[in-house]
Fold each of these.
Amino acid sequence: MRSTRRLLLPASLALACVAACNDKSISGESGLAEPIRARGGQFIEGPLPGSPPGSGVPGPKVTAVSLSSRIVLPGQAGKAVDGRATSEASAIAVRLGDLGTGYWVFVLGSADAQFPGENDWHADLDYNADYASQPGFHPLRFVAIDGNGNAGEQTENSVCLASKVPDNLHACDPSKAPPEAVFTLTWDADVDLDLRVVTPTGAVLDPRTPASGTGDGGAPTATDAVFDRDSLASCVKDGLRQEDLVWQSRPTGAYDIYANLFDACGKQAVDFTLTVHDVRAPAPVTVKGQLIATDANGGSGLGQYLTSYAF
């Protein structure tokens, strides 16, 4: 049963009234905290309008959905999705079915010459990296809405949110083995913080010396540790605030772990968490700490000692 409630949208979406909402449903926020963001769309709080997939309820209908890939990397931006809808539709709404607090509405494109009675649509979706802490498959639902605000039957696809902690896409394909060990440093402010690790041989690894490189020509081998990124290098925001040191094969010996504030980037302080993921350990090891602006050293020191971990 459809609700008769309506909402007012900006001029670009003036023809797309949405069922199952009222004026108060329009969020005053930009939706940046949501798991997805449809560029150029209107964010609306509440459940996705329309009837559940497979209900067979008549009305405007999404007839095709084409995803560039079902796998979503942490913080991936501009991930394209294309589709078609019946010509009585004026807009498309989209949301992840089990995450977030609302959905996004965007207008349709032009008529599709190859499919009479249908219109094309396109969306560029930005995915929030924070939701990569809930890796695995999640339903991605679309619904078509006509100019009177009537929503039809929802269409469901699925996407896999890749783990924020490197796992070789194990969360999306269990046949892929995860790394043997990962040291992960995360933090809560836009500062240039570095994970630094001293190996059993005394070598210092950090994002600026990203691999132990014991193979031919100094290239890393399967037993070497490799950094995945230099997050917020030179204070350039990346939306992640995370660095990971990854071993595909099991290391040996004891490793001393540090958090080093390379540049405070104008911030007064940063809180951080170190997590050691060891596939043979019963649970991850975590260490929390804080650094203040005066601790920034431009990489001249090891930083704050956190712990030593022995394999």
Amino acid sequence: MSKSVKLLLTENVDSLGIVGDVVNVKVGYARNYLLPFQYATTPSDELIASLSERRAQAEKDVAAIRSERETMINKLDGQELTMDRACNDQGHLYGSVTQQDIASALKEVGFAVSPREVRLPVAIKRVDSFDILVKVDSDLEAHVKLWVVADRHIEEDGEEEMEFDNEGELIIKEKKKPAAEKPAEETAPAE
């Protein structure tokens, strides 16, 4: 039994092809997704010829979408977003910032980006700035600067952080005493 099968696409399928393409796919993908939803059928010369008009229209649509995305990526590159989030006194967020949150914020400022196009380098769980990659196609990407700020003023503790040496021993620092004010020089009364 073969592991792949050739099918003719009757609809556009993301990451696979457009109407009229003959594609090689795994049997399970064909049996469980493409064939039941009628996105594909067995290829024949008559079907390929009958889908030629739809294929031409699909190519025009794909080209139009591509040019829109190129324009959007050029405008999006270098944008900055600021998000207010609830956090504790150390700056740890009570919830994380997700791809959905970033996509929604970008839509509010006029960029049609889906959550799956937002690529997070790490889970965003603290107040800080982050570089976010927005990748709408294999060769179309933009970098967005995300500032996650606290929704309230966070008090900074005046204590210094503890430091340890290579053996793990605590380094004790002497506290700096405020410099005593110099007494004002007495000036001799002018005679």
